[in-house]
Each structure stands twice: as C-alpha cells, then as structure tokens.
Amino acid sequence: MADDARILLLGKPGCHLCDDAREVIVKVAGELGVTWEERDITASEEDTRLYWDQIPVTFVDGVQHDFWRVDERRLRAALTA
Length: 81
Prior knowledge:
This protein has three helices and four strands; from the N terminus they run βαβαββα. With 81 residues, it is α+β, with helices and mostly antiparallel strands. Strands 2-1-3-4 form a four-stranded mixed sheet, covered by helices on one side. β3 (57-60) and β4 form a beta hairpin. α1 (16-32) packs across α3 (72-80). The radius of gyration is 12 Å and the shape is globular. The two termini are 21 Å apart.
C-alpha cells in the first residue's frame, strides 16, 4: 500500500461488487480529500489465498474495514474518527 493512501481496495477484474465499492470509495475519498489505491488480488498468490472469497476488501489506515460491500456512512465515519 502506498505510504500516503488511507484507503486500500482489494479486488479483481470483472468483479461487479468491486465496481460498486470503487464508486463509493471515489465519492467519499474525493469529498474528504483522502488518498486511496486499488490492488488486484490476482497479482499476488498471498492476496488471492487470503481474500478470494471476501472481495472486494477495504482497508482503512492499514486495518481491514469491510468486505463484499462498502457502506458509505461507515467508511466516512472511519476516515473522520
């Protein structure tokens, strides 16, 4: 994860839930002015093993925050706490 990115989204190509999560993250991160990054779990055997059945997985400040769905209010609260 980039040193300055507060949000990390783990997903994979062709994942409609990942697309939905990305939309929420783009909105919230943009409104709050925080950085985020996305990583494809298929590029890492370890990520694939750990997160395959949970994607999309969202981390905030290095701590797992959500999986499957990203709740906008919950994400916003985690970033402003």
